[in-house]
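FW: tagging you since you asked about this chain on Friday. Here's the raw sequence from the shared folder, copied in full. Didn't touch anything.
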Amino acid sequence: MAKQIGLIIAMKEEAEKLIPELKAPKIEGYKGRKFYLGSLKGVDVIIGICGIGKVNASHLATVMCNRYNLSLIISTGLAGGLGKLPKLSVLIADEVVQHDFDITAFGKEKGQITGFDSPVFKTAKKETEILKKGIKNASSGIIATGDQFINSEKKRKEIVADFGAVACDMESGAVAQIASLEGVPCCIVRVISDDAGDGAEDDFYELIETASTLNSTLILNTIDKF
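HL: got it, structure written out here
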């Protein structure tokens, strides 16, 4: 079976500009999930819309890894800039943490997942560098994942202080954890849709179409570089 790249995206709105670009498309259902198969720029890809949040992302990533012969997973879509990155800028993450995981009462670091030595999951170095070369002027750094849409100045400052993160989302940390367990390289590329501060939900809805279109364009322009 030929190697395939898996694209994991949370919301239908974030994927609807990308799915029509698939060549020889087909839809496959498996384990309660729907996958869009085809090729982009001659590369075999599978697009999965996981739904918002870590459990949704974990389930889809696990099913995708077990169903297909993946050479790479890319967690992609939109993210909050935590006041560090301007709206409609691009983040290619070097590391990801889960900001809402806390068993410090048992002597672990904040964000450290049971069974792992560090709270940080590193993205695949070679593939991340390919993305950085292909997407000019992209930022890099830590993205923080949690089961919360961050729209609070207070909360975003806490996340920055605790983890040094430059952006936040609700899926990438879970995808990276599953990718690590399944032995599949993982990259993260996100377009900033809001600043994660007070009223961020208004910016998100205002920019979701523009940011999603930009994100789809970035994926199309780099997918054949791997």
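FW: The chain has one domain: 4-225.
HL: agreed, and The CA atoms of residues 194 and 203 lie 5 Å apart.
FW: great, closing this out.
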